[in-house]
Design goal:
Elements lengths: L1 E6 L2 E5 L4 E5 L3 H4 L7 H20 L1 H11 L7 H28 L7 E6 L2 E7 L5 H22 L4 H9 L4 H5 L9
Parallel strand pairs: 1-5
Antiparallel strand pairs: 1-2, 2-3, 4-5
């Protein structure tokens, strides 16, 4: 008995002794009645890559806002808002990426069947579980929610708000000289 796993690049069959991979573009197996949804899975995988990339790209400005807000002089309302927005967009796009793929591909796969692999008839059973890449993407997406929550819970210091409004750049340094950057 082989176990089969659906991945973004194809289907993996494995036993304790052997592993066999069928690429979505492999016409020999994908035209078979058993793998009649290869095109759907390939299209779903291609569609989710751009959303997954968006999730990754939003991590860069999110990290920048975290660093910016760690300094008293840089902890301003616009950085707080930007951290909340980029974290939320990154989280949502990561979750959408995983859900889109599993709905478009994984749920359309049969539960069991017989196909020919290397000249042998192979009986396969499929179970629908998220693989390592999908799990890691979900964990990374959910971690963005922690960052968003911290941005929401940590207020911008009043002294920073007063400094920016009054134009007195030296006020923050006078209040907290250890955690501010000094101007030349």
């Amino acid at each position: 008995m082989w176990d089969g796993y659906v991945s973004p690049n194809g289907v993996v069959f494995e036993t304790n002794e052997d592993t066999f991979f069928i690429d979505w573009d492999d016409s020999e197996y994908c035209n078979d009645d058993y793998f009649d949804n290869c095109d759907e899975c390939r299209d779903a995988a291609e569609g989710t890559f751009s959303v997954a990339i968006l999730s990754f790209v939003t991590a860069i400005p999110q990290l920048a806002t975290d660093i910016q807000r760690s300094h008293l002089d840089g902890d301003v309302n616009c950085q707080r808002l930007f951290g909340i927005v980029t974290g939320t967009v990154g989280c949502i796009s990561g979750i959408i990426s995983v859900l889109t793929y599993t709905q478009a591909c994984g749920e359309n796969f049969p539960d069991e069947g017989v196909t020919v692999v290397d000249g042998l008839e192979v009986e396969s059973e499929f179970s629908y579980r998220l693989g390592p890449s999908a799990i890691l993407l979900l964990v990374a997406s959910l971690m963005k929610l922690i960052d968003v929550a911290i941005h929401c819970l940590v207020p911008v210091p009043e002294v920073t708000c007063m400094t920016k409004r009054s134009g007195k750049a030296h006020l923050a340094a006078e209040v907290d000289p250890i955690h501010t950057t000094k101007e030349p």
